[in-house]
Amino acid sequence: MTQAVLQAEGLTKRYGRRVALADCTLDVPPGRVVGLVGPNGAGKTTLLQLAVGMLTPTAGRITVLGDRPGAGPVQLAKVGFVAQDAPTYANLSVEDHLRFGAHTNPRWDQTLADERTAQLGLDPRQKAGRLSGGQRAQLALTMAIAKRPDLLILDEPVASLDPIARREFLSGLMAYTAEHRTSVILSSHLVSDLERVCDHLIVLTASRVRVAGDVDELMGTHYRLTGARRDAADLPAGAEVIEHSAAGRQSTFVVRSVVPIDDPSLSVEQLTLEDLVLAYLSRTAAPHRPELETAR
Predict the structure, then answer these.
(1) Is 268 left (phi over 0), alpha (psi -120 to 50) or beta?
(2) Structural domains in the chain (count)
(3) Most exposed among 17, 74, 171, 185, judged by the fewest C-beta atoms under 10 Å?
(4) In the prediction, which pLDDT does 286 show?
(5) Per the confidence metrics, is the pTM higher than 0.85?
(6) ABC transporter domain location, by residue (predicted)?
């Protein structure tokens, strides 16, 4: 598969006067595990619900796997989705869930579903309402991946889980994607989780995309510069300032530059992924910069 798994152009969703997502332009390549990161209320869930066809845009357009989200049974079969609360049916057993999945999904892989529930130690007769939060999340993930989707969309699936359950969920997810080469979009506000599993990043704050691209490319073009106090205008040519702070006689900048920073008066450091994300989050209140809304 070479087509983009998700393309959006000017995608906007409003509820009356409230803007949930504004002028979102993205081009997500296939074969990636995409981390969608931002604070609560940033618009992550809105974007993902637009991607699975649960919402319709107010303006702009979105395609998923080359077609309109939720366009029909064929399109729906290509996308697996786990919502934020990892929904399961409390009065149905694990076995009932798998039987329901097999009945409603034409690409259902019963062997995969059975093997996964056995590996997780889930009792097929156990009702979902009596499972732990981590077990319910794993059951919801099993339902999504046994569809054998081309794209798996996960909306903060580990937000309510304890650290051990979160680690087990992410380990299971990565084992599956490594074996089946499924594209994944995973939203979270926990950067440490995304750092472990993602190779493509989208930062979304205040309803807008702030930066997007492959993690390796982003990490290779962002730097922390420290030196004698100066204005941003005095930085080397081509350095786009993302964040700036000053203390006493020292200035610190987080910048984006496609060329190496060559200035002996500056200390140049690479950023961690968390540093990069926090720099863009802190920029939320800065003037709008349209060039940051296009995936690189």
Answers:
(1) beta
(2) 2
(3) 17
(4) 46
(5) yes
(6) 6-231
